[in-house]
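Hi C.,

You asked whether I'd gotten around to modeling the 198-residue construct. I have! Everything is below, sequence then structure, no commentary in between.
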Amino acid sequence: MIEVRPGGRRRIDRVLAPDYTDGLDQLGLADVRARRDEAAQEETDLSYLRRLLHARIDIVRAEQRRRASGDPVSVVEQLAEILADNAVGTAPAGSGRHQTVEPSRAEAHRRHVEALVSDADLSDVPTLADERLELALTTYIAEENSVSRRRREVQQVMDRLNEHIADRYRAGSASVDDLLAAQLATADPAEPRAGEDG
C-alpha cells in the first residue's frame, strides 16, 4: 500500500502534506511553480507504477482465462499482445493528463511490483497453482487501488496549484513576459536560443 507519512521526507509525503498548498499567496510565483512541478513528477511516477500493476493484472487474468478455456497457447507466448495496452512510456490515452516528464524512480517501482508477490515472476505465471494465481491477482488489484487513490490525491494538489497560477495571471500579478524571462535566466547557456544557429 502507498502510505503517506506525516512529516516524511519523500516527495509523496511533501506533496500530500495537508499544508502543501497553504499560504500560496505568500510564495513567489517561481516557488508555486516548483511545487506544481514536484507534484507533476510524483503524478508521473504513480502513473508509471499504476501501468506496471495493470500489466501484471492483465497477465494473471489472461492466464486464468487460458486455464478456464483450455487454450494450449501459453501466456508467455502471448506476452507482447497482452502488454500492448500497457506500453510503458507516455501517459495512456484517456488519462486526462499530458505528462512532460519521465518517471524518476522506474527501477525502484519495478522492484516494488516484483516484491509484492514472492516467486511470481512474469515468466512463472503459468506454473503457479490456481490459489497462488488468485492471491497474486488480489494483491496486485489491492496495490493498484492504493496507487490510483494516491494518484488522484496528487492530481487534486496539481489542480489547486495550477488554479492558483492561473488566478495570478487573471489578476495581472503574473505575466507571460516574466515567465519567459525566468526561463531564459535558467536556460542552459550551451543550448542555442530560439532564432540562433546551433
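If it helps when you're writing up: The longest helix spans residues 130-171.

Thanks,
B.
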